[in-house]
Amino acid sequence: MGTPLEPRSEQVTEVLDRLYEEYPDSTISLNYSTRLELLIAVILSAQCTDERVNSVCAELFETYQTPEEYANAPQEELAEAINSITYYNNKAKYIRSACADIAEEHDGEVPDTMSELTDLAGVGRKTANVVLQHGHNVVEGIVVDTHVQRITRRLGITEEERPERIESDLVDIVPEDDWQQFTHLMIDHGRATCTAINPDCTDCVLADVCPSAKPDADIDLASGDPW
Ligand code: SF4
């Protein structure tokens, strides 16, 4: 079991230093070339792998280009086009509705504020944060996805459980300049080493500062359950 640094801001600094070193090219892994494509890819990525989303979007973005084209696409047609994505029926509805709003209320442009974005169908704070950061260069918060949620708890950086609570905890202790990269570094580490099931603690650069590190720790602090 590793020993986390005190206070938590020190732990964050140490974790960031090591992960920047480990993943120097860390960035978003969804493919897109416009803000609308980014928004659609992020809506599709909820509980689905970025790899799958990229593969579906390669064709989807050829077929539909404007908000009007998505909004006017028949529900069955759009659902069929994304049917290898989780919850494709609901996601097709969200995309058609969000695109109708973008066309009618935002002159066809993806909005650039948190409140306007979260008013769109299928867009929660996490999706809005990604679109603001990568589509508009506006960093208003920290994107808390499943990797950020799991690893910040394992590392003793937060004890909160819900993404919104974790985000408000993190913005107080993660330097603002690192808000965007914090998420990408956690995602890279979550994919490479600190996986949900059976993380590779013996080969982890954070093991000596991680209170969940196996084999010494008995408990996975992410779930509170024994390893
Ligand atoms: S892989 Fe293990 S040691 Fe590394 S951060 Fe995850 S739980 Fe901690």
From TrEMBL:
Cofactor note: Binds 1 [4Fe-4S] cluster.
SMART domains assigned: ENDO3c (SM00478), FES (SM00525)
Swiss-Prot/TrEMBL catalytic activity: Hydrolyzes mismatched double-stranded DNA and polynucleotides, releasing free thymine; 2'-deoxyribonucleotide-(2'-deoxyribose 5'-phosphate)-2'-deoxyribonucleotide-DNA = a 3'-end 2'-deoxyribonucleotide-(2,3-dehydro-2,3-deoxyribose 5'-phosphate)-DNA + a 5'-end 5'-phospho-2'-deoxyribonucleoside-DNA + H(+)
GO BP terms: DNA repair
Binding site for [4Fe-4S] cluster: C194, C201, C204, C210
Domain HhH-GPD per the UniProt entry, residue ranges: 44-192
Database matches in Pfam families: EndIII_4Fe-2S, HHH, HhH-GPD
CDD domains: ENDO3c (cd00056)
Enzyme class name: lyase
InterPro entries: DNA_glycosylase (IPR011257), Endonuclease3_FeS-loop_motif (IPR003651), HhH-GPD_domain (IPR003265), HhH_base_excis_C (IPR023170), HhH_motif (IPR000445), Nth (IPR005759)
Keyword annotations of the record: 4Fe-4S, DNA damage, DNA repair, DNA-binding, Endonuclease, Glycosidase, Hydrolase, Iron, Iron-sulfur, Lyase, Metal-binding, Nuclease
Gene Ontology MF: a single term: 4 iron, 4 sulfur cluster binding
EC number: 4.2.99.18
Cofactor(s) the record lists: [4Fe-4S] cluster
Functional note: DNA repair enzyme that has both DNA N-glycosylase activity and AP-lyase activity. The DNA N-glycosylase activity releases various damaged pyrimidines from DNA by cleaving the N-glycosidic bond, leaving an AP (apurinic/apyrimidinic) site. The AP-lyase activity cleaves the phosphodiester bond 3' to the AP site by a beta-elimination, leaving a 3'-terminal unsaturated sugar and a product with a terminal 5'-phosphate.
Family under the similarity heading: Belongs to the Nth/MutY family.
Protein name in the entry: Endonuclease III
